[in-house]
What does this fold into?
Amino acid sequence: MNLLKIIIEQEVYPALGCTEPTAVAYAASIAASKLDGSLENIAISVDPGVYKNGLAVTVPNTNGERGNLIAGVLGALIRRPELKMQILDGGSQELIERAKKLILAKKALITCDTERQGLYIEVVASDGVSSVKATIADNHTHLVLLEKDGEVLFSADPTDKSLQKFDYKSVLKKMQIADLVDLAEQLDDDDYSYLLEGVRYNQAISTEGLEIKKVGYYLADLKEKGYLQHDVFSSTKILAAAAADGRMDGLNMPVMSSGGSGNQGIVAILVPYNVGLWFNIEESKIVKSIALSHLINSYIKCYTGSLSPICGCSIAAGVGAAVAIVYQQAGKNIDQMTLAVNNLISDLGGMLCDGAKGGCALKVVSSTDSAIRSAYMALNDHGITSIEGFIGRTAEETIQNLSRISEIGMAGVDRTMIQIMLEKNL
It folds into this structure.
């Protein structure tokens, strides 16, 4: 068993558009692909986290349309589930018009199941004769149930040992930062090439995103006008922000994700990559640091969950990037890595996630800035310790403390945000 390969396969993959509406589109495509006739009706039910993340984000190939509903209907019309998280690449102007007609006719509806915990998407599609239900749960591509007219076509029955997959998250959750460093250093040639491919994906969308004249563009403009210096901070923030701008604006370009999130993939990949280039770190060490960044991101999300009240770009991907930068310059220095974790979480631990949208690029900038700053201080043996606030005695304990705050302390915060969003659509 190669745990690194399993995590990369499950957590690091190209995704077109925001991963939540794309997952809705994927589930809908699975359901509709089992219909014999044309789509007549579709009902979508999602958990609060998916609802929140898909509410305001632009969906690729829809001429600027936003939200989970248009994504789901379009996915059902595309009917190509083999595309998985690039399902929206199969869109066309004709399908967009058909999707809009179904929505206007109230034949396509979406609801938020406020009692659901964890990622959950249920789609019921009908052609007027038959009805098919597809359910995805736990992660963006995990099909757990497929039924047609009440007949079960597929069920991921947890009691059926033959259908059980290796529970890598349970193993990952029990590990320590030092173990993750050892995993990252097991990188083989295939993983190496794949991680570099992720760099190219995210660089490409950053280049295009800079033309949109949003956060990345205005940071670049500030640098041109002398408000920002041309340094590792500004260059990395511009690079990451422009990529997030492009993704949130619905550019028809895939992003290499991390932990089920494209924006987290942008931070986890581009920040250590650009910092490594800036300080002339050899490529092999940069790529290993990116592997470590992905591992740290996935490790933290084992505790905070896939979709939480706090911003994953900051407290998961940002932490991964900070640890990766320390690794580039100090190797397996656990004391300094611990300080980097503590610094960033102490800085951004309270940053709220109010769904995917254009404003996420601002949070990407904050995460990028804090990751570099936190790593630099840690490399000089300065950092926040357990004497202060909710910081733990180890990096692992700090992450676990943050998880408690997110899951227990901020549960009411998330419900309040969801309610505000639901009220907007009344």
